[in-house]
Amino acid sequence: MNKVINTTRRNPDTGKCYIGERLAVNDPRAWANTLAFYGQTPTQTEVNEHLEYCVHNGYTTKDGEIWNMGDLCVPVLYDFGIRWDPAKDLQTVQS
After folding, report:
1. Could you give the C-alpha distances from 94 to 38, 80, 84, 88, in angstroms and in order?
2. Among 16, 43, 77, 92, which one is most buried in terms of CB atoms within 10 A?
3. Which of 89, 84, 58, 62 minimizes the C-alpha distance to 73?
4. Nearest to residue 74, comparing CAs of 27, 7, 13?
5. Residue 54: beta bridge partners?
6. What residues make up the domain containing 33?
7. How many domains does the chain have?
């Protein structure tokens, strides 16, 4: 599990930073009900095909089997759901 802390967002009730699990860019959970897959949770194949389209059109890059959106947003699973947060706002949580 890749635990991260968002250093720019705080819970308004506790004042503590949110901690979540950084997901792979091609995790179908991260794409559920987005503009690309409105009203549905896509399959892994659908997400991979969408990301290949994004690579072809210069929206993202791919290194081997890893898609990379640079310092743009990355998906993070929090207790309250998934958010796409800027990578620069996240720090790895030491266990």
Report:
1. 35, 22, 21, 17
2. 77
3. 84
4. 27
5. none
6. 3-92
7. 1
Give the type of residue at 59: Y
Per-residue pLDDT of the chain (95 residues; tens, 9 = 90+): 689 999 888 889 999 999 999 999 999 999 999 999 999 999 999 999 999 999 999 888 888 777 777 667 889 999 999 999 998 899 998 76
For the chain, the DSSP string reads: --EEEEEEEE-TTT-PEEEEEEPPTT-HHHHTTSSTTTTS---HHHHHHHHHHHHHTTS-EEETTEEE-TTSEEEEEETTEEEEEEGGGEEEPP-
What gap in Å lies between CA 82 and CA 68, rounded to an integer? 18
